[in-house]
């Protein structure tokens, strides 16, 4: 039994056929609007054959649904999914699984990489990892104030209203929440290299963090940090045509959500304002561009959205690094909103001498090049700390699973 998906920017439909060697007909009885007919005349209808057929598609759903279960079953499902689709290994760590952190050993700018492996956020992070090639699903950063008080700054903190915002949380409070988190987070501390720390402008970092405090998480540009190329960022069966169709469906079901997630960002790429998705598609065609090309136009760090600058968890940290001088002399030629979590931990800005890591971080026992401060499994960050910053970094990088091969200087 073969499962086919038929898509235009205005609809997604599907049908299944018992025999592939017979002629079959899929009928569209009415066009959603005149613009859909014009689009089909110009571009046709995108047709997708699900590679595993109906049974395989259902089995794939069986693989995905348990990822969001906050149970041991859900955790096993997440580990199995990442092992199968990304080749991740999950080796048990030596005890203790949580570190006794000495505040004096932690400095402003030190990076935190988090990986949740069960529950709602565990499931979302697993899918994000698979799509982007990152072996972590969230990030945060340390800041230390003039009184020596340690804070954790992050984009994506869920407040009491359930909104995800940019926050600054005292370390003791943040760590207490991490220890109680039932999504079983694995957390790594990636200290900055001493040479990088020496040029880290702490005052500028604090000024940036305070200017962003309370702003919403960067949903506007979340997907655009991942899509850099015409075809080499999509895990099968995704491609730009299906992405466009999914966007269209969500626009009809949740127009506010769609505006927040992509409409404003697409308008930025065209230099237009307040066009809805179908207006964006029409304008793109007038300019002789494909929707695929539009998606690959790099994000700009200086773009202002309706609710201010938009930064995901990792873009927030790297924007702080820009403000603090970490990327000099490439500060003006790097757009950190183009970076994924994987791109961030591959930057060659972190400590590279294991003997300088604090004794409490257990790096020698775990045989890791960084400090894992929480979690029962060793965190694997492939190509960690290997790529020197350069101009226009990560603006044209493929990330197709399962290898996620990255050319140099893409």
Automatic annotation (TrEMBL):
This is Uncharacterized protein. Gene3D superfamilies: endopeptidase domain like (from Nostoc punctiforme).
